[in-house]
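Bug: token stream looks shifted between consecutive jobs. Job 1:
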Amino acid sequence: MIVERTSAGRIAAKARGVRFGPSPALSAEQIAHARKLIHEDKKPVAEIARLFGVHRATLYRALDGAASES
């Protein structure tokens, strides 16, 4: 009974457009800004990651994810 109600609530939330999971660490604007700093200003990725308060791996994943979505 509880499982059924939970499942129904999850389905209803998805229908309303609710996103599950943790929120993204970087916004699309931040990713675009990071890409500009890397390519145009030749800043090191570690420095950009510190600027945004994320780990280098997080920045690399965000850049890779944004590239594959385009």
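Job 2, same session, no restart:
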Amino acid sequence: MGPTVAERCFAEKFVAPHWLPGGQAFWYRRQISDDKYRFIYVEIQSKNIRPAFDHEALAVALAEHVQKQIKIDPEALPFSWIELEDSHVRFRFGEQIWHFGSGKGLSKCSGTFTQGNLTLMRRQEPSADTAASRPVTVTFINNTRSRLFLNDVNHKGSVKPHTSISQGKTLFEKTYSGVSWRLEDAVSRQLRGVYRVPDKVHDTVIVDEVDVDEYLGKEGENPIGALLGKGDVAPAQEHQDDGGFVQLSEEDINTTPQISVRDGKLWLRDEQGIESQLIEANSSEESHCSDEILYLCPNKAFAVAWCFQQ
């Protein structure tokens, strides 16, 4: 069954910011229609919103490099993640990293390319025996435009449904080290990654809209998540109350900036616990914000929220 009208509307309005260094700008993938996307660049101070690069020119250049007989749709480019710097864009296609710049065309390049979540793996592994495992609280953050299925993989490798995570929502799951979880798109059933719980008290998994085959490929077999953070000191413990809000200790409240929605307006609580209302870029008396989607930039200077007219 395909997406509902409400799910389709949500997908086309959805914004998951990928912040650039400095926290003054970000990029995201805007869904035009089913399986059609464009990469959008947003500069906050200047309110500049534009395509992140020339999609048509890149599609033509990439088709010429790969196979002249094929045509690549500029709204269905064969990659889902980019790195931006000035007027240049880098992306991974196949086993190669590519560089595309205005006036400089397309070329192959070397170096590292940061994409996806290294805590996720591609191969599904059975869960370890939990008899000697330690309890772990995992924060799953759904940074995609679709609901996610969180499936439990038992010690025999069998998969069974566990729960789901709505778009833009956070789930706090109490589990054990060595347990494997399979994350799938609830609409397309596309694999978003397999997560192996590490040996630490708390871990965070951010699930982005990245094709796991694109950045892991057939070589993505190592359970990277199980190897990270062993022996690390756990951060402050968190839990959700009945209303779905994150509860922190009094000390954490004084040191951790938070954004929230109250009476339809955005509020920021800074490191000192002082609250102030955030000014919306296109505010009006009829504008209301939803707590469905809230993103605070790394330097805490800006936030991205979903606002609407009632």
